[in-house]
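Section: protein folds

Sequence with per-residue C-alpha cells
===
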Amino acid sequence: MSADAWADLERAAGPVSRETFERLQAFERLLQKWNRSINLTAPSTLDDVWRRHILDSAQLGRIAPTATRWVDLGSGGGFPGLVLGFLLAERPGASIDLVESNRKKASFLQSVVGQFGLPARVLARRIDDSYPLVSAPEVVTARALAALPDLLDLAAPWLTKGAHALFHKGRDYRAEVEESAHRWVFDLVEHPSMTDSHGVILEITDLHPATPQ
C-alpha cells in the first residue's frame, strides 16, 4: 500500500504514526484471511476494505481526539471498534470495550486484540448484559447495528449519564432522527462522512426521555 494510504488515514483520523499505519495494514490482511471462514464483512466490500471499513472507522478519532474511554456496540468484524483500538494505542491510558454477542466474531476480535496488544477488552455478550461491566465511557460507538431509535435505547444507560454517541448512518438518517425524537430529546451534530458522500456520523449528547404529550 502506498504512502498515499497513510496520508488518507491521517486525513481521516488525524496524526498517526507509521507503526500504527503498518499495524492497520497487517490487520487488514488478517481480516481478509479470517473472512474466508467467518463472514466478518460483506463480500462486496472486500476489494476496498481500507476505505470502506478502516478509513470509515478511523474518522471517529478526529471527532473525539481526546477521549480515552470508549465502548463499541455490536463490534462484528471490528468496525469501528478494533480500528479505534489501534488508534487509541497512541493515547496514554486510553481503552475501548468491544461488545459482540456472536461467539465466532468475538473470537476474531479477541485474536486481534491479543496479537497486536491493543488496549481493548472483548465482551462476548449481549449489549444489555454489558451495562454493569462498562462504567462511565466517554464515547459510545456503533456501525451498521440498528436503526437510530433502537441504538438510543441500547446506549441510553450510558448516554443519559453524560457519554457521547458517535453513530455511523447512511442516506436515510434524517427519517431515523425524526423517529427518535418521539422517544428521546438530545443535542445533535451531523458530521459529513469522509468516505461516503451520502453518509454521516451522528454525534449525540445530552440524551434524556421525551416528555409525554
Notes: Residues 3-209 form a domain with the Rossmann fold fold (CATH 3.40.50.150). The radius of gyration is 16 Å. The chain has a mean pLDDT of 93. The chain has seven helices and seven strands.
